[in-house]
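Technical note accompanying the year-one report. For the benefit of new consortium partners, we illustrate the data format agreed upon in the data management plan: each record pairs a sequence with a structure-token string. No post-processing was applied to the example shown here.
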Amino acid sequence: MIKGLHHYFSKTEILLWCFSVLFIAVSFIFFNSESYLTLTASVIGVTSLIFNAKGNPAGQFLMIIFSIIYAVISFTFSYYGEMITYLGMTAPMAVFALIAWLRHPYNGHKSQVRVNCLRRKELIFISVLTTAVTVIFYFVLKAFNTANIIPSTISVTTSFLAAYLTFRRSAYFALAYAANDIVLTVMWTLAAVTDISYLSVIVCFVMFLINDIYGFTNWIKMRQYQQKGFIVK
């Protein structure tokens, strides 16, 4: 199986995953050596991203597991918006995305989903829907006395957009997740001011950002190859 994965992933992808795990592990040792839950979530999360970058449904399965663990971590710092978002939206949407990706393989290749191009009407629809979700969640988070409510609300916005685009198999889902990574880096930086152990979470989302940017570029390449009738190895 290990040999199979070695041939499945490119050298760039293997190096990206190895460096991501290395930085996460080092930050864990120096800043958060007691929370193995954070380490577990980080490794699962970055692994899911490398599979997502390939358009492999396995990435969505791992995202479901990550969402549950990350929700628990968010609860410990009263980031109720993150907890609600990942348990009530990201995890369920990852389930739907997993089903959608499995049902739409590219030319029968179950390890690569068919990239979808959204039409203008759907783009307008998702813009209106995302705005509505943002407004509703602002008041919900306010009612829960959520810490750092503004970045928490923005996180909900980017998370919802990313989850929807993932389900719809759009290459821009990775770009939306990259935006979410930036917001979460800011949020956990604010948390680290009062508890330095959260620095490991910051490193986690910085690594996520790098992986999501790579994922976006690879999906654009996948879309171009699929339009020509080829598959990206």
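Partners are asked to follow this layout when depositing records. The chain has a mean pLDDT of 88.
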